[in-house]
Structure formats: C-alpha cells, structure tokens
Amino acid sequence: MNIEYAIIVKNKTRLELLIERFNTKAQAKFYIERLGGNFNDYEIENEIFQNSLQSLQLQLSKVIKNKIVERNFVSSFIFSENQLIIVIGQDGLVANTAKYSKNIPIIAVNPDKERYDGVLLPFDTNNFIGGVENVISKQYNSKTMRFAEAKLNDGQRLLAFNDLFIGASTHISAKYKISFNNNIEEQSSSGLIVSTSAGSTGWLSSIFNMSYGITNMFEKNLKPKRPKLKENELLFAVREPFQSIRTQIGITAGIIKTQNNLIIESLMPTSGVIFSDGIETDFLRFNSGSIATIGIAKETAKLVI
Description:
Elements: E1 5-10, H1 14-22, H2 25-34, H3 39-61, E2 65-70, E3 83-88, H4 91-98, E4 105-109, H5 128-136, E5 142-152, E6 157-160, E7 163-168, E8 174-180, E9 183-189, E10 192-195, H6 203-215, E11 234-238, E12 253-256, E13 262-266, E14 272-276, E15 279-285, E16 291-304
Parallel strand pairs: 1-2, 1-3, 3-4, 4-16
Antiparallel strand pairs: 5-6, 5-16, 7-10, 7-14, 8-9, 8-13, 10-11, 11-12, 13-16, 14-15
C-alpha cells in the first residue's frame, strides 16, 4: 500500500502546560520566578521546539500531506497502513507512540540536541526528510523493536516499548510472590522494573546508577558495567527488596528470554498496578488474585534509521 499521509506526533512543551495551568504566560512567569525558578529556560525550550516543529511541517508539506496528533490522543488514534509516523520530541514520546503504531514506520526527530540525549531519535530537522522520502519509496532501513508484555490471568495485557513497572501505586511496599527459573519466593519491595533493550538506557539505567553509587562508598575504583540486551531479551530488576521472616531477597534480577517467563502473583489487597513506559494512567490493576506473566510480546515496532 502506498504511503499517503504523515502523522506528526508531538507533546506540549513545559511552557504550554504552565500556561494551561495558570491561564496566561504572565501568571506562569510570576509563579515560577516567585519561587526562584528560571522562567527563561522554559521560554528558550519552547522557542526551540516550536521552531523545529515549524521547520518540520514546512519541509514535510512539500512532500506529503500531514497532520498533528497530540500525545494524549495517540492511544485512541487509529493508525493505518497508508501512513507513516513522525515523532518529534523526547525519547519517551517514541515509546509512548510505538505501542499503538501497528508496525507502521516511525521516523523519530530530535527537536533540541542540546537538551535531549536522543537515544531513540536518529533524525533531526536537517535530515529527517530523507527518511520520509525513503519510506515513501519503500527503500528505507529500519530497526525492529520488541515489546515487553504483561499478561494477567483474566486475559488483560499491556505492552511496553521501554519498560514495565509492577508494584504499588503509591510509595507503600509492594507485596507479591515471584517465580523465575524454577525458583519461587515471597517478596516485599518498591516494585519491579522490566526493561526492553530500547529501555535499558532509561529507567533501568537509574537503578544501576543507584546501585553502583552506593556500592562505590565501600568498594573504591569499581568499574560500572551496563547491560547490553539483545532484541529478544528483557531484564528485570527488583527495587529495594526487603528481607524479613516472611520475605526473601534471592531473586533480585534476571534475563527473560522467549523460553522463560517471569511470573508474579499479587499479594496486595488494593493499590497494586502494572503500568508501562512511565505512563501511570495506562495501567492494569494488580491486586490479590492477579497473576502476571511477563515475557516478550509478539508485536513489534519499526523504527526508521
């Protein structure tokens, strides 16, 4: 099927969100500066993004019809095979979009290289149009990205491009029974992170940063190592496991492959959740009686490179 339309996915800037909150830019500025914040940084960030978006639209309009979809509408937007997706924003926006992309080619554009790392953003406004033309002519290169999947015993499931969180919805301890590689134990922790290869530089990396930071207090000159996950692998890590008479700390991390799943049974009467890619509103309830099977999903995303 020929590509007929480009869907631009964007998110509101921090300045736009502040103006929504305080009704006017002047009131937002007063609030930030009264608290000692740097309002100029919000303005600069917004200006750079708007200029990048304008440049992207101007170039794109000469090649293909297009329209903008805000991030909060992506989950209900119906993508089709005659479209391509252009994400302009932070890495997390690529993750939020990919889950609903139905394997349609995604061209990810970094609008501000001085501000965003762009691990998942191979293009900028200077070179993205070449990627668009390659997709239209069906002569593009892409990287297939695998999703993590949480499937409950009632049939509900949730996909994650970067990572899944399994735990309590507040800062109380999560209580559950965990099973991995024929080992079973009851745990109390701050929850689990399950990361894909795409997400290994995100939330998972902060867990490694904390672990190495604490360990370095007692073991000097420790050389940090980072996981290099393959596309068909997931890595799970238990956050702050607590050892007690009833709870153990034997299962703290592991690699999930196609042949071995992670099984978690909720022991929380209320407040148990599973959410994906940092979006707390996109969640499954995970209370007592719920059993989650965590593994690699059959769905994929196609990131143009």
